[in-house]
Amino acid sequence: MNSKNEESSYSPDWRGSVIFTDEQRRVIAYHEAGHAVAAAYAHLEVTGEPYFAERIAIARFEGGITSTGYDGRKGYCNGLCRTNSTVLGLYLRIDDSTPRVRQIETNKAIWSTAFFLAGPYAELRYLNSKETFASRYSADLGGRSTNDFDNAEWVYQLIKAAPGKRVSYEAIHRKSRELIACRWDVVAKLAEAAFSCDELFASDVERVIGPLIDRSFILAA
After folding, report:
1. Contact, 2 vs 23, CB < 8 A?
2. Could you give the C-alpha distances from 101 to 50, 111, 146, 166, 204, in angstroms and in order?
3. pLDDT in tens, 73-126
4. CA 179 to CA 187: how far, in whole Å?
5. How far is 125 from 184, CA to CA, in rounded Å?
6. 66: phi then psi, degrees, rounded to nearest 5
7. Which of these, 29, 93, 99, 15, lies nearest to 60 by C-alpha position?
8. How far is CA 186 from the centre of its chain?
9. pTM for the complete prediction?
């Protein structure tokens, strides 16, 4: 983990930030790296092959990156993990009448929820936070992960509404938290690369974390 005192929680002061400090940019980098590592493992479990995010970008100033959300609207963000994924997303066919399709789509939905939560969990771990359950009210996140929680909660509502076996929201949180903890070496390596370069593309992500993907690493929700 980072060199900060692991006995205490630390978060940089974001109030009034226009130009980000190196410490703030590192927080963003670890957050986005968490998303990217979760995406790699989501695809590994669902398709048998890892997936490397198209772009990871770290802003140097507030609202410094142009982004397009799942709803197609453009906006500005401080960090970006862009995926063009057949596994991850907000709209899944988990109400399909075919049981096999429904099972696959539900697994995708579980991993999508874990993917959205992985950024906040990576951020909390980097900050040595004592908060064990990430939410929009987590003090150390300072309200910076609202979209992640909106997306995670949206997908989980699809899971709840679908017929068949239920999985709890807490179980998916645990899946995401354990993935980040168990693959922290991968998250840290990718985050430091993103921090150094400001921007990584799929070939960069594959070069950094590809050899570290553990194909025997399976997490059950």
Report:
1. no
2. 21, 15, 31, 16, 33
3. 788 889 999 999 989 988 777 777 787 777 888 889 999 999 999 999 999 999
4. 10
5. 9
6. -80, 135
7. 29
8. 13
9. 0.90
Of the candidates 56, 54, 55, 76, the residue with the CA atom closest to the CA atom of residue 64 = 76
Which tens digits make up the pLDDT trace of 10-51?
556 676 668 999 999 999 999 999 999 999 999 998 898 999
Instruction: For 61, list phi and psi in degrees, rounded to 5.
Output: -150, 165
C-alpha 59/C-alpha 78 separation (Å) is: 5
Question: How far, in Å, CA of 180 to CA of 35, rounded?
Answer: 9
Amino acid at 104: I
Torsion of CA 212, 167, 146, 206, to 10 degrees: 20
Can you read off the two tokens belonging to residue 106?
Answer: 């539900």
Name the DSSP letter for residue 54: S
Please spell the DSSP secondary structure of 100-111, one letter per residue.
HHHHHHHHHHHH
Beta strands in the chain, from DSSP E residues, in sequence order: 55-58, 65-68, 74-77, 79-82, 199-201
Would you say 36 and 56 are in contact if contact means Cβ atoms under 8 Å apart?
yes
CA separation for the pair 127, 140 (Å, rounded)? 8
